[in-house]
Every structure is written in C-alpha cells, then in structure tokens.
Design goal:
This protein is of the alpha+beta class. The protein has four helices and 23 strands. It has helices at 2-22, 90-119, 124-149, 195-198, and strands at residues 29-35, 46-53, 56-60, 65-70, 77-78, 83-87, 152-154, 159-164, 171-172, 177-182, 187-193, 206-211, 218-226, 237-243, 255-260, 276-278, 284-286, 289-295, 301-305, 307-312, 315-320, 327-329, 342-346. Strands 1, 17, 18, 19, 22 and 23 form a six-stranded mixed beta sheet that branches. It has a six-stranded antiparallel barrel with strand order 2-11-14-13-12-15. The longest helix is centred in the first third of the chain and has 30 residues, at 90-119. The chain is rod-shaped and about 125 Å long.
C-alpha cells in the first residue's frame, strides 16, 4: 500500500512541475515612449501671425462702370501715378463732350451779353443771369472731365500689389475695392491675442519675431497697435508687431511666430524655465495627484508625481518632477504596473517640449 501511495505522490509532484515549466515567461509590453527635453518651453506664449505691410491702401474707382483693362497682377511692383486699371469710358466721354459743348455755348452767350450791356442794350440783371449760367457750365464741364479721368485707376504711392479683388469684365460701383496696394519698407507681423492675454499687453511691449521661412533668427520688435475691441467671430484682439528686417529677408504673406518679452529680458534672448510640454496621453491621474511613467535603464517603469502648470491643446506643461534626458511613456499609461518591463517604441516626434 505504501509503495502505491508513494507512486501517486510522485506523479502529482511531476505533474505540478510540468505545469510550472509550461507557463511561459511574461513578455515585455510594447509602449510608446519619448525623451523629456529637446526644447524647454518659453516663459511667454507664442502667437502665430502673418507678415503684412504697415501701410496698405485699398484702391477703388471713384465712379461706377465696367472694368475693360487691368494691367497689374498680385505681386507686381508699381510706382506712384502708374495706371493700374481702366473702366469703360464711353459714357463718361459723352457726358464730358456734352458738358464741354454747353460750356462753350454759355461762354459765347456771356461774351455777347457783356458787349450788349456795355452798349446799354441789356440790363445788369440779364447779364448777371448769363454770368451765373456761364459759371455753372464751367463747373459742370470740369466735373465731367474729372469723371472721365476717374475711369483710370492709378497708384497713389510706390508699392506692391498685395491683392486683386476685381477682374476685367466685372462691373464695379464707386468705392468698391479693386486692388490692395502695400507700401514696401516697413513690415509688421499681424497676430491675434486671446481674451485671456489681452490685459497682459500694451502698446510698446517688446517682442521677438521669427519668420518661419527665414533662418530662424529672432528679429527684435515692439507691439505697435492693439485693437481695443475684439473680433466678434474669433473673440480675439487684432494686434500688430513692428520689427526691423534686412531688405529681401522677409516677404509679405510669410508666416511668423511672435513672442513677447518679459521686463528685464535682453533683446535677442528668451529666458527659459524648467517647463516641459508632454502629450496629454502621458499623464496618469491618481485622484488629485498627477504622475507619469518613467522608464529606467533596464526598461522597467516607475510612477513619478509631476507638477502640471497648465493644460494646452498641444499637451500638459510640466514644471516639476521631470528632468531633461529622461524617458517617459507617452501612451497607454493606464495598462502599466509598477516595476513592469516594457518594449520601448520611439515616438515619431521625440523630445518633450518641442514645438
């Protein structure tokens, strides 16, 4: 009996060992990660803008009519007085001819009445009536000549055609914008300030402008204009930042980034703070505490509390708890456990805080 029990016990023990041996080791979980650092966030927000000329003029005809000729396109360099477009002047020409004929008739009449009055054949009142008619005809002739001249649209200053808003063949009314002329020379970055940032700025504030198509250099400038009323659609306040640039360095319409400088900052420099922008998907919320998973050298993860200064559309701004060069898990944070080893997958955009 005892040998039988011993055999049964041995079989049970061997079966348990086989089950333990059959259990595979837990595989490392793939996890998307990225490095902290790359570029610290600046202490002040950055605003997107567009390069515009400081002086822009909307050009329009002073009379209504059909555009029959247009001699410039967007981007064309023009000189003051240069003809840009022309309306059909047939009707204006007829009116000018009619007014000129009436003027000549009135002139002949007043000359005749002056002679008759000198000879005593007409009264002073009759002469005065002819003098008044002559002055009215002269004024009407001058007006119609001006109307005829107004059928040609000319540049009021040197500049570049920023936009063409009406084409040949189109009928326009008096005062309707046909071309937009930008005066070359002084440039500005046009931006929009959110309502929350409006009270923090005033005209004269120092700023830096970075043209995206340029060499990345920060061009010193200042807030020249800040609208007191916000845009009813975007709920933002239009603003313009004037800056200096070398000729040919910046073109109209280029995209730019504007950063306002805090008092005490030196031009050309931006004070950096220990702030890092991480993806919102990297944030692990534990009640009222915020943490992230930090990856160790052996690819194990540990939870670390961090301080969040603000949440933005681009991610969370971290002001404490992380150091440049550390690796964090950027997605799938709720599936991890303390000490678990992961299979590192590099993020496509590596480097927290990069813009």
């Amino acid at each position: 009996m005892k040998p039988l029990l011993s055999c049964i016990a041995l079989l049970v023990l061997l079966s348990a060992c086989n089950k333990e041996a059959a259990m595979p080791a837990r595989e490392a979980r793939p996890a998307l990660t990225q490095l902290v650092g790359g570029q610290a966030l600046a202490s002040s927000p950055v605003y997107s803008g567009e390069i515009r000329a400081r002086h822009e003029t909307n050009l329009s005809f002073r009379v209504a009519g059909k555009i029959v000729a247009q001699w410039v396109d967007a981007g064309a360099q023009v000189k003051a007085g240069q003809a840009l477009a022309r309306l059909d002047a047939a009707d204006a020409g007829l009116q000018a001819n009619a007014a000129e004929a009436q003027f000549q008739q009135a002139e002949a009449e007043v000359k005749r009445f002056r002679e008759l009055h000198h000879q005593g054949f007409v009264s002073q009142s009759a002469l005065d009536a002819k003098e008044t008619a002559f002055k009215a005809a002269a004024a009407q002739a001058g007006l119609t000549r001006n109307q005829s001249d107004y059928t040609t649209l000319r540049a009021d200053r040197d500049g570049v055609v920023a936009a063409v808003l009406a084409e040949a063949g189109q009928v326009v009314v008096a005062g309707q914008t046909v071309l937009r002329l930008a005066q070359t020379g002084e440039l500005e970055a046009e931006i929009a300030l959110p309502e929350a940032q409006f009270a923090q700025h005033k005209v004269g504030d120092k700023a830096e402008v970075v043209v995206l198509a340029g060499d990345g250099a920060a061009l010193p400038g200042y807030l020249r204009e800040l609208a007191p009323i916000n845009d009813p659609l975007s709920r933002t306040y239009p603003a313009r930042v004037a800056f200096a640039a070398k000729p040919g360095q910046v073109a109209l319409g280029m995209s730019a980034r504007v950063r306002f400088m805090n008092p005490g900052m030196n031009p050309g420099l931006q004070a950096k703070t220990a702030e890092w922008l991480i993806p919102l998907s990297a944030v692990y919320q534990q009640g009222k505490q915020t943490a992230v998973w930090v990856v160790a050298a052996d690819q194990s993860v540990s939870l670390r509390q961090v301080q969040v200064a603000a949440y933005r559309d681009a991610g969370a701004v971290i002001t404490g708890g992380l150091h440049p060069g550390e690796r964090i898990v950027s997605a799938g944070v709720h599936r991890l456990s303390e000490g678990e080893k992961i299979l590192i997958i590099e993020s496509v955009t590596n480097g927290s805080g990069a813009r």
